[in-house]
Amino acid sequence: MALLEVRDLDVRFALRQGEVRALRDVNFTLDRGERLGIVGESGAGKSVVAFSLLNLIARPGHIAGGSIRFDGQELTGLGERGLRRIRGNRISMIFQDPLMTLNPVLSIGEQMVECLKAHRRISRREARTVALHKLQQVQIPSPATRLDQYPHELSGGMRQRVIIAIALLLDPDIIIADEPTTALDVTIQAEIMALLRELCEKHNVGLILITHDLGVVSQVTQRMLVMYAGRVIEQGPTREIINDPQHPYTQGLMNALPQMATPGSHLNQIRGSMPSLSQLPPGCAFHPRCDFMHRADGSARHACAERVPDFVASGNCRVACHMVAEMLALDARPAEEEAR
């Protein structure tokens, strides 16, 4: 049984102009110690997935349907007291901006001690010893000194290491990292991601990495989900998707990488922009921007513009695309004819 199992997750926001579906039919699993990446443009629904797992969706948002099972326990109907035993304790979260996460008027040590005391019966001296050990684990220099410093006294990379140390304080089963290196320079990004991967491997901790950086996903994760307009459109082993993306949106993301452009020429880009969730086009939400659709014949165009595509298996991946389904069907015909 998977450690985390998400089935048909549906998240909605009640707005004045009507109800908006931020997530629809999201399905995935995470095994113990597995590293999963979730990628997509801003507005695709990546962070909403992360907040849904811990039921941190703020009003007017709510989980309208689906199931989130963690270690056999259903989380969607769990009360606040039950969720408090899960949050931070068994599932930890690393947010984008450490300055927004850390309390500016408390020292690093005070914050780590309070976190431990909120979840465990432990003395302040014991809690401080645990905090010091976690800072050592994340390779912060002079950890005893850092315990008595305040967030503003640390660099961005140091603050992010502190956040990772806090996430590890209670030895969680899963860490959710929501764009953990957005505000850092490239060198520090690489160090933080290498550290996060090493810690997850060493302690058999599951990782859900939310990012728009395909390079980071390819280096850190084993499986990945590609999201568009609140829906998963492709999922499978990271290496397979990176090396041979099937969905035209995933292909567009890969082609938009700087290294994919000819030196001296304009960068490749996907036409148009992500649609508003309150005004999604009918059929496949990506079809107005899809190069495949613009080259397709009449029947294929009608399918893309009228019906939401189902998932089809392509190798070890699953893809929600009418074009891919059509190509797979054509490839299967000669084999079926030979079998006859």
Automatic annotation (TrEMBL):
Enzymatic class: translocase
Membrane-topology descriptor: Peripheral membrane protein
CDD domains referenced in this protein's UniProt entry, alphabetically: ABC_NikE_OppD_transporters
Pfam families, sorted: ABC_tran, oligo_HPY
EC number: 7.4.2.9
PANTHER family, A to Z: DIPEPTIDE TRANSPORT ATP-BINDING PROTEIN DPPD (PTHR43297:SF2), OLIGOPEPTIDE TRANSPORT ATP-BINDING PROTEIN APPD (PTHR43297)
Protein name according to UniProt: ABC-type dipeptide transporter
Native source species: Halomonas heilongjiangensis
